[in-house]
Amino acid sequence: MTYFRETLVSWLRDEFDKERCSGFARLKRVPDTRVVRFLDNFEQLSPSDQAELATVLAESTSYTLSGTQSPPSVVEKFTSATNIPSLAGGVRYTGVNLLAGLAKSKTFGGLTGWLQSNGITGLAAQPSENLARNVGELIPVKIPSLRRRVESAFARLFSADARDMGSEMWSYEGQLEGSRVKVIIRYSGRMGRPQLTYQVDLMQKEWPWTARYLCFESVLGVGSGYWDYLTQTNAEHSVDLLCELVAYVAKLPERLPKR
């Protein structure tokens, strides 16, 4: 490992450790079932396994940032560490668009019947406590309402100019603390798709890295900004979080180690 990659991996590890020391204050609020799975799995690991996983995530992200192909050994370790088949399905790890469809299904008799027919019990049968208080709150937010919330919040955060790019894609561009910021969001109310996918475009700044689009979750190596657990109840808080994460990514050029 080169000296610079060691420096970058160390920086990424520090970012992960800061989030971990906060009790994953931001990640716990991310309405993404992949992130929920990651946190549930991480909590079950021993301290040494947690430290090893954090290093694997940092190594993988270091190659993504530098635009260098990850060695097979890194890919294998990352895939093995993040593939968690034991934590899948149920109301905890299934997007709310699909859950809403299952709740209306006469085939299974609603969510309760679906859980019973699939033998889903325990943690998987419970919604994420950080995103919904009970099954009754698992009502997907309406996409037009979500889009209006985002547009209003981005207008306050960085005076964003919203532009419809077609194919459910929207761009938001403006100024944040004197720097240009551009966020690309794809909305979808379709079953099986994330309700919101976000990436921050960093090519507008002096950005010496190959990776052009990033999100907070991808910097930490735990997700891709695929939000599929947005409900009518948590939408407002989730959009507030989105603003916080966009601001984090927008400031990366000032914080990452220099090449």
Quick rundown:
The chain is an alpha+beta fold. 46% of the residues lie in helices and 13% in strands.
What's the layout of helices and strands?
Blueprint (H helix, E strand, L loop, with lengths): L2 H19 L11 H12 L2 H20 L5 H11 L13 H9 L5 H8 L25 H16 L2 E6 L2 E8 L2 E9 L8 E6 L11 E2 L1 H5 L5 E2 L7 H16 L1 H4 L4
Antiparallel strand pairs: 1-2, 2-3, 3-4, 4-5, 4-6
Tell me about this structure:
Strands 1, 2, 3, 4, 5 and 6 form a 6-stranded antiparallel sheet that branches. A hairpin with an 8-residue loop joins strand 3 and strand 4. This protein is 46% helix and 13% strand. It has 259 residues and is an alpha+beta fold. The chain has helices at 3-21, 33-44, 47-66, 72-82, 96-104, 110-117, 143-158, 216-220, 235-250, 252-255, and strands at 161-166, 169-176, 179-187, 196-201, 213-214, 226-227. The model has no long low-confidence stretch (mean pLDDT 91). The protein contains 10 helices and 6 strands, in the order αααααααβββββαβαα. It is globular and about 60 Å long. It has one domain.
